[in-house]
Input
Amino acid sequence: MLELDLTTELDRQLSVCNACRYCEAFCAVFGAAQLRTAIGDGDVAYLANLCHDCRMCYDACMFTPPHEFAINIPEAMAAARVETYERYGRPAYLARMVRSPGSVALATVFAGVALVAAAIASSSSAAALWTPQSGPGAFYRILPYAAMIVPALALAAFGAVCVAFGARHYARDISGDNTAFVTASSLGTALHEALALTYLKGGGAGCYDEHRKSGSRRFFHGLVFWGFLADLAATTSAAFEQEFLHLLPPYPLWSVPVVLGTGGGIALAVGVAGLVAVKRRSDDRPTEPRMIALDYAFLGMLETVALTGLALLAFRSTSAMGALLAIHLGAVAALFITAPYGKAVHFVYRFIALVKNAHEQRNIAG
Amino acid sequence: MLLSPQAARTSRGRDVDVVVCGGGNAALCAAIAARRAGASVVLLEGAPEHMRGGNTRHTRDIRFAHDAPNAAATGAYSEEELYADLLRVTGGETNETLARLTISESKSLVEWMTEQGVRWQKPLTGTLHLSRTNGFFLGGGKQMVNTYYDTALRLGVRVEYDALVRELEMDGGTVAGVVYDRAGSEARIAARSVVVAAGGFEADVAWLAEYWGEAAAQFMIRGTPYNTGIALKAMYGAGARRIGDPRGLHCVAVDARAPRFDGGIVTRIDAIPFGIAVNAAGVRFYDEGEDLWPKRYAIWGKLIAEQPQQSAFAIFDAKVTGRFIPSAYRPVQADSIEGLAAQLGLDAAVLVRTVAEFNAAVPYGGSVRLGELDGCRTEGLAPPKSHWAQRIDTPPYFAYPLRPGVTFTYLGVAVDTQARVAAADGRPFENLFAAGECMAGNILSRGYLAGFGLTIGSVFGRIAGITAAQHART
Output
C-alpha cells in the first residue's frame, strides 16, 4: 500500500512519465498529465478518475518496482480514486463507509433483508413469507405497493442528491480556473467514450491482467453496465404497465418487464462473474488493496441482486416467493444505500473527468 | 536444481536445434524465426524475468524503408534515402553489402512484426517528428518485448531466465554447445546451431575502463546492467573476428542524479542548446549552438566524458523553461548565478564571469528561433555559440548537473549476409550466428540513427534464426 501523500507521490511518478511518454497512446491520462508540469490535489482527483484502470502502462513500464524509480501508475491512481470516493461522499459521516466496504455490504444486505421481511410480516403475516401466491397483485398481497415504492423512491432520491452534491464539489476541484468545461461538444465526446469504454481498450490490446492482454474486462464490464440498465428499464416499464395500463405484476414471461429483467439479470450475473474471474487471475501489483475490497463488495452486491432477481422469476409461483422477494428487495435496498459510498459511484467521477478531458483536448486542438 | 556439469551433459544430450543466447529484440526475432522455420529452440536470457529484454526495453521505435504509408509510418522512405542517412551519420564507414541487405529487408519488418503481435502507435503526421521514417510501438519497447515473449512461448520456444552464457564449446570449426550459469550453478546445453544476440558490453565498467581509463567510473549506463558482453567475449574466445572501435560508445548527456544503471530515456537532458554548458571549473568548453536535434543530442555525452571528472552543467534562465523535452528530474534553481554556483558546488566568481562574458558576446536582445539554425551567434567569444545565443539574464536561473550516459557500444564480431560469424581468417563458422548490438558495428560503425539499431537487430535476428534452423535441420 502507498504510504506517502498521494499528491507528492503522483507528482514524482508523473514527472518520470512526462519525460518518457511511451504510454501516451494507451489512454487519455498521459496526454492530460503532459499539460501539467506540477501536480496538485485537483489534478490527482482528475487524473485518477480519468484512468480506467486498464493497467497496460504497468505492463509497458521499464521503471516499475524493483527499479529505483518505482513507477506504478495504476496502483497510485487506484489509491487516489478510493480517496476521491471518500472525500466527495456526502454527507461526510456516511462516506466513512468507503473504508470498510466488505462489512458495510454484509451489514446493509442483512439489515435490508431483515427490514423487508419485518415489513412483510407486519403488513400481512409472517406466514406470507412461505405461502405460495399467484395471479395479478401477488407481490402486493405480501408487501403492499406503498411499502415497496415509497422507501425505494426515497432511497433513490436521497442517493441521487448526495451524489449530485459530491459531483458538483468534485467538478469544482478539478477544474482549477477553467470552470466552463461542460459544453455540448465535451459532453458528447465524453458520452461516446464512456459508453464505448474507449479507455478500457488499452490502445488496442485490451487490459493487462497477467502475462496476457485481452478484451475480457471491457466485455464483461459492458455486460454489467447494459444488464444493469436493462434491469432499470424493466422496473420502469413495470411501473408504466401498472400506472397507465393498470396491469399488476407478476407479468407474463413474454412481457416487456420480464424479458428486459431476465435478459438484464442474466447479463448482470454473467458480467459480474466474468469480472470476478478476471480479477482473481489478475496480477494485483498494479492495483491497491482498498480498491480490491471496494470492487469485490460492489460486485458481490450486484451478483446478489442479479441472482435473487432471477430466482424470484423462476420460483415466483412457489412457496419460496415470499422469502426470495424479501432477500431481493433487501439486497436492492442495500445496493442503493451504499451506492454513493463505494465503487458504484465510479462512473460519476470518471464521466466528469472525461468531460473535462474532452474540453481540454479540444482547446489544444483548437 | 543442482546438477553437476557432467550430469547436465548426460541428461540433456544434444537435444536442441537452436540455442539463442540473449533475450532482447534480436534474440527474440531469431528465436521466433527459427521456431517458425520448424526448429526446436531454447532461449537463454541472462536477466531475471522482470528485467528481460535487454536494452530493447528502453527503445520506442524502429526505422524502416517503405514505398507507401503503412500501419506504422506516414509517407514514403526509400531505400536510397535510408542508405544516404546511414552514410551521413557513419561518415561513409559501413559494410555496403550488409547495409543494403538490412535496408532492403527492413521493408518487410512492419508486416512481420505485426504478425508476431506487435502493435503500433497511430502514425499521425507532425505529432512524432520521426513519423515518416520510424514506426512507434504501442507502449514502447518493453511492451514489444513482452509481446515477443508471449509469441515465442506460445510457439513452443523454451525460455530460461537468469541464464548467463559463459562459453561456447567448440568442436573444431563448429560450435557444439553453450556453457551457462543457471540459478547459480553451471549448466551446459548442446545445440546444432547457436545464435548470439546478447547485446554489447557497456554494462561492464571494468571493460570500458580498458579503453577509457578512470573516466569510465563516472559513466552512467542508460540501459540494462546485464549487457556485460560475456557472450561477446565467448565468441572472441571461440576465434571470432573483431570489428568496430573498442573505444566507440554512443553516449548522451544525462542527469548526474540518475541511477547508475537503467535510467533509460527519462534521464536525458536536452537543455544545453537553450543556454550554456560549463564544466566543473565553471567555464564553457564547446559550441552549444552547433546543430539541431538529434545530432546535438548524440555529441554531448562524449564531450562531457572528455571534461574533468566527466562532469558538466547546463545553465539557462527563466526565458526558456518549458521549451525543451522535460526530464525526470527538476532543475536546480536559484535567484542569482552566485546562488546557482553554490548549489552546484562551482566557484561562484568563475561562473559569474563565464555568464557575464557570454552575455556580453550576445550582440542583441531579441529572441531566438529554437526550431531552426537561426544564426543568432555570439561575437568574439571562444568557443562561440553559433545559434540560439541569447543572454542569460532573467531569474530564476536553472541548472542541470550532467554526466555522460552510455547507450550502446560499437565493438562486435564480423558477420556475413547469412548472419554467420566470421573467424579470424575471414571464413564463416558454419553454425555460429550473431545478431543485434554485438554485430551492428558492421553497419553502424559510428554515429547514431534513431531506431536503426533495432532495424539491424530485427533483420539479422530474423536471418540468423532462419539460417540457424535450416542448418540444424539438414
In short: The CA atoms of residues 120 and 324 of chain A lie 12 Å apart. Chain A has 15 helices and two strands.
